[in-house]
Design brief:
single chain; mainly alpha
């Protein structure tokens, strides 16, 4: 019975996610990703050519990356609030339900593990003396450890005290770090054997511990609600999510940026958009995250071509993701009473996005100065200006018109 309930829920969940995937993997996003992956691959390839011989640092990088990747991927239980009442009599039968949930939750982490090991292996082969045949040992080791980490998450559903769960997580992190160190600094096969032994011992300990505990239903509901909220936040970057409500914060310390806007009729929507951007976490948070990521990638890179690609890609992503600002006040009927032409609304969004994208572009250039000549810096500034102007003058009005047609 529990297995059938899981299958029914996973079908419904997949159907709902597939509905949103067509908005995420649109033509624009796929092209941008291809450019970004190509640029990063080009920079990575150039870096590998500079490696002269053995480098201990690459093994340390491998230990850190392999340990971090084990924390990617949460247990998807698909538990619903009503389950605390209707599933309670069937609590003993929930073991089969959570086995299915753990098996399903392992899919994405395995894909990320394979991808991560595949990307890191050229570095390990070039500077740490490994062979490409060791890739299989690393993948199997990490998959075993990730399966154990998901087992810990299932066990956490019965743990009442947060302190005890933090203790288990701390011990798991130390053991994962130790096994990855064995795999990279001693031998991949030794690391694999260590992962197998750890899994057997830890699962035996958990099975004896869990027998005396019961499921914490409120905790399960909160965990699943937070997990879905994280997914919806990502999807919300591409399309509106009815189930997600954005938070608004006062942020009085940012009012200084609004004081420069003259209180004139033509600036009504410009002021509203600027205020919504500063106070809405879905806009300002997105802008800050994209800017920081672009600055980090550009700062770590050492190529003029990479800087060009990063600027174009991230300026496009920022502008594209901030376009929903245009509809932010559509549910507020009072704005229809303003004696302001609707064309001013588009012009206001153009002004705001032009300034935000220009600031972002200049910050990306700023962190790239150390590896650029004066001519290259000048060219990047010109590229920022041309792209910014083209996006706001040509692409933005066209995209807004398409979005308006869809909404009608």
């Amino acid at each position: 019975m529990m297995t059938e309930i899981w299958k029914q829920r996973i079908r419904h969940h997949q159907k709902r996610m597939m509905k949103y995937l067509k908005y995420i993997f649109n033509d624009h996003f796929v092209i941008v990703c291809l450019f970004l992956v190509g640029a990063m691959g080009y920079a990575y390839s150039n870096y590998l050519k500079t490696i002269a011989g053995y480098d201990l640092k690459s093994k340390l990088i491998g230990v850190v990356v392999f340990t971090v990747v084990l924390n990617i991927g949460k247990l998807a239980t698909l538990i619903q609030p009503a389950d605390a009442v209707f599933m309670l009599p069937k609590e003993k039968a929930m073991e089969g339900y959570f086995k299915q949930a753990k098996r399903r939750s392992l899919g994405l982490p395995v894909f990320i593990i394979v991808l991560t090991v595949g990307v890191l292996m050229p570095l390990l082969v070039a500077s740490a003396g490994f062979a490409f045949s060791d890739t299989l040992y690393f993948i199997i080791t990490l998959v075993i450890l990730k399966e154990l980490e998901l087992t810990n998450q299932v066990s956490n559903l019965k743990i009442k005290e947060a302190k005890e769960w933090r203790k288990i997580k701390a011990f798991s992190f130390i053991f994962f770090l130790l096994i990855n160190s064995l795999a990279l600094f001693v031998n991949p096969i030794i690391g694999l054997l260590g992962a197998v032994i750890l899994t057997i011992c830890h699962k035996n300990w958990l099975s004896r511990k869990d027998d005396s505990l019961t499921y914490q239903w409120e905790k399960m509901i909160d965990n699943e609600t937070n997990r879905m909220k994280t997914i919806y936040k990502f999807i919300n970057l591409f399309t509106d999510i009815p189930a997600l409500k954005g938070a608004v914060k006062r942020r009085a310390y940012l009012d200084i940026f609004l004081k420069s806007i003259k209180k004139e009729t033509n600036n009504v929507f410009y002021y509203l958009f600027a205020r919504a951007f500063l106070r809405g976490t879905e806009y300002s948070g997105l802008y800050v995250r994209l800017t920081i990521i672009a600055m980090l990638l550009s700062g770590l890179g050492n190529s003029f071509i990479l800087s060009i690609v990063l600027i174009i890609v991230f300026l496009y992503l920022t502008g594209f993701q901030l376009l929903p600002l245009y509809f932010h006040f559509d549910n507020l009927s009072l704005n229809l009473l303003y004696p302001v032409k609707q064309i001013n609304k588009v012009q206001a969004l153009k002004r705001l996005l032009f300034k935000l994208m220009a600031i972002e572009g200049l910050l990306i250039i700023l962190v790239s100065i150390r590896h650029l000549s004066l001519m290259e810096i000048g060219m990047l500034i010109m590229i920022v200006g041309v792209f910014d102007l083209s996006f706001c003058s040509l692409y933005l009005p066209s995209r807004i018109n398409k979005m308006l047609k869809i909404r009608r």
